[in-house]
Amino acid sequence: MPDLAALAADIRIWARELGFQQTGIAGVELGEDEAHLQAWLARGFHGGMDYMARHGDKRARPGELVPGTLRVISVRMDYGTGDEDAAWARLADGEAAYVARYALGRDYHKLMRNRLQKLADRIAGAIGPFGHRVFVDSAPVLERALARDAGLGWIGKHTCLINRDAGSWFFLGELYTDLALPVDEPASAHCGTCTRCLQVCPTGAIVAPYQVDARRCISYLTIENRDAIPEELRPLIGNRIFGCDDCQLACPWNKFAVAHGEADFAPRNGLDGARLVELFAWTEEEFLKRTEGSAIRRTGYRGWLRNIAVALGNAPTTPSVLAALASRRDEPDEMVREHVAWALARHPKVVLD
């Protein structure tokens, strides 16, 4: 039997060497979090994410998802850029395209999975074969609750995890294991009376502290949602074409966040400076080529056009904006065509031909 306390210390060292900024170890009891999840689902806040309800029990019961699991090794990888002022300025530029920071570079899922597997291999090399499974937002896992219990941070009122020394600009990953490693002290909450995230949410999706209605959330509407965006919410989306960062940008704890040093998270295809008109002109072939290895692929080409059409409807009335919308008035896809028509109707009547 290995010295589990010594092994836990080694795991932290190995994880740091693999590029993770923090590592913690949690138990598998998530009773209160399961009750919170069930109440959230009962209110329909998951919208069209049926998989959230389908795997609800396993999400809160690690031992049912992976039989034999005794502990969860939780890791954090930073992706912040340290330029909140630039982000706000971009959001204020109606002809600029705003892409959530996490999606500007390479898709984090594969990168983190590979590194977590290397961590598992390192553990196996030290103690021999052991039961484990790697997850990075790829299965029914309550990753934020587990990360909280592992001491990585607390769940904020916007439901993102917050770390006192690193803010909230980070990804999470998990290594489920049958090793009875010593667990860490859960993180305590430090949001206090602050409600900046609730106040800044463009669509009022944070309906109460620790309660997000995905049906109003811009991240859900522009990524997970496959249908038309409700008309009453379209003007509130502004120029956000993939995801939303407002609640994190407003969080005072992010003054402690530091810029990441991960080359794979550097912006690709100029997405941190792209204009709406430029992106709206992409063909499907160009979209697939430019989003290869990117989280943006998740929205699909029709979702991409839908989102940009909404943003162009919210943009200033300029010749280039009007011309871009006019170029797709007869788009074959009915949903895209409807969003383009809505966007054109938002601008003063002018002769386009």
TrEMBL record:
Class of this enzyme: oxidoreductase
Superkingdom of this protein's organism: Bacteria
A single MF term (Gene Ontology): cobalamin binding
Cofactors: cob(II)alamin; [4Fe-4S] cluster
Keyword annotations of the record: 4Fe-4S, Cobalamin, Cobalt, Cytoplasm, Iron, Iron-sulfur, Metal-binding, Oxidoreductase, Queuosine biosynthesis, tRNA processing
GO cellular component: cytoplasm
BP GO terms, sorted: tRNA queuosine(34) biosynthetic process
Bound cofactor: record note: Binds 2 [4Fe-4S] clusters per monomer.
Active site (catalytic residues): 137
EC code(s) of this entry: 1.17.99.6
Alphabetical list of InterPro entries matching this protein: 4Fe4S_Fe-S-bd (IPR017896), 4Fe4S_Fe_S_CS (IPR017900), QueG (IPR004453), QueG_DUF1730 (IPR013542)
Pathway involvement of the protein, from the record: tRNA modification; tRNA-queuosine biosynthesis
Domain annotation 4Fe-4S ferredoxin-type: ranges: 179-211
Binding residue positions for [4Fe-4S] cluster 1: 191, 194, 197, 251
Subcellular location: Cytoplasm
Matches recorded under Gene3D superfamilies: 3.30.70.20
Positions contributing to [4Fe-4S] cluster 2 binding: 201, 217, 244, 247
Reactions the enzyme catalyzes: epoxyqueuosine(34) in tRNA + AH2 = queuosine(34) in tRNA + A + H2O
Annotated binding of cob(II)alamin, by residue: 59, 137, 161, 172, 219, 244-245
Protein role: Catalyzes the conversion of epoxyqueuosine (oQ) to queuosine (Q), which is a hypermodified base found in the wobble positions of tRNA(Asp), tRNA(Asn), tRNA(His) and tRNA(Tyr).
UniProt subunit comment: Monomer.
Similarity comment: Belongs to the QueG family.
Name of the protein in its database record: Epoxyqueuosine reductase
Gene of this entry: queG
